[in-house]
């Protein structure tokens, strides 16, 4: 375990333990729990959507619902008619989820190279297939059907060996599970599905794999009292093996999202663009149209590095974490387009990460005059350092920043560049940074550049 991660986890544990708090199964008590320090410091995580939906690998991870749900997608229906026998079922895809090239250590190396600090892996999506040998998902799990492996277990070991924090996504509901459908027909006045499926699975993965993120989803159809959410979270915070370090999101029942939980996700690809009062996470995808792998995706469907870095910078500037999703293939490979984006992201973080990791929102998020500049800050006593992220290199030899107020001891440096830069103060607030001596060919990055301003007054 790396020193920084160990320190963060220990701090989180000491903070919680020193309070001696027993959290009650209600939102007021649960929301009062301090967020473990490691999460806010990390800023960047990797989301991984992998399951039986990776076999058809068209449309999205919602393939089954779009094929046989209440409102089928005609294109998906036609695809099945054109390519599969009439009596083919979704369960038949299970044996084709082969994962023959799945190498957990190789995945972990790619994730570590991205600069991410934590991983959230889909243990079970809405299709109900569990990526671990669950006792509560007979013959519809990764040990009984398909890979014949404990995917969650293998990945948890590899991720931790790579000095990353391991977390799990879990869907509360399943599209076509008969117990869920019966509870729904009963207007959720019965809880057979929760008692026999959802909650046993959650307790199982926490006790067995000790994830330090529980990323809940699939909650929107029923209230939190149906899901028994607050009782589970109270146990998670009070008694579970990860009680002092675990973080949770906000998807625990109809009307709960964006209001309660450990941190807020509000909606997929949530990037508000303004500072938030509570910690949030922008869960988003490199493939603009799907969380799972798509065989029929075009290059234009993937975020460019400019787009990915802008999303990261704006999110962190406003106080959020970025959770970047990749969707592996059915045979267990992270496609080269994903790997390239993650490795390029990691190279950028090696140069500019000081302005990301452990940073905080500044007085200004976006520059008051330059819309292509976003800010973060770090403060140490009376000293304040501000990081200006420039999304587009200036067309002149001067970078004008209207927000910072320099002092007599302020210095301006370009992260990854060898020497401080000359600047002039513009009025009571603002600086003009001279770029004439900067050799463009020697710039440390191809996309987005970070200027560090030390000892800022505001």
Written description of the protein model:
The chain has helices at residues 3-19, 27-31, 37-42, 63-68, 74-83, 104-113, 151-161, 178-185, 192-209, 224-227, 229-238, 305-317, 336-352, and strands at 44-48, 118-124, 165-171, 213-217, 247-248, 280-285, 320-326, 373-380, 383-390, 398-401, 412-414, 423-425, 431-434, 449-453. It has 458 residues and is α/β, with parallel strands linked by helices. The strands form 3 sheets. A 7-stranded parallel beta sheet has the order 5-4-3-2-1-7-6. Helix 6 (104-113) crosses helix 7. The longest helix has 18 residues, at 192-209. The radius of gyration is 23 Å and the shape is globular. The protein starts with a helix and ends in a 5-residue tail after the last strand.
In short:
The chain is an alpha/beta fold.
Query: Can you summarize the main beta sheet?
Result: 7 strands, parallel
Shape: globular
Percent range of helical residues? 25-40%
Radius of gyration, in Å, reads: 23 Å
- Number of extended strands: 14
- Which strand order do you get reading across the main beta sheet? 5-4-3-2-1-7-6
Strand content: 15-25%
How many helices does DSSP assign? 13
- H/E topology pattern: HHHEHHHEHEHHEHHEEHEHEEEEEEE
Termini gap = 37 Å
Averaged pLDDT: 94
**Structural class of the helices, strands and pairings?**
alpha/beta
**Low-confidence residue ranges:** 1-18
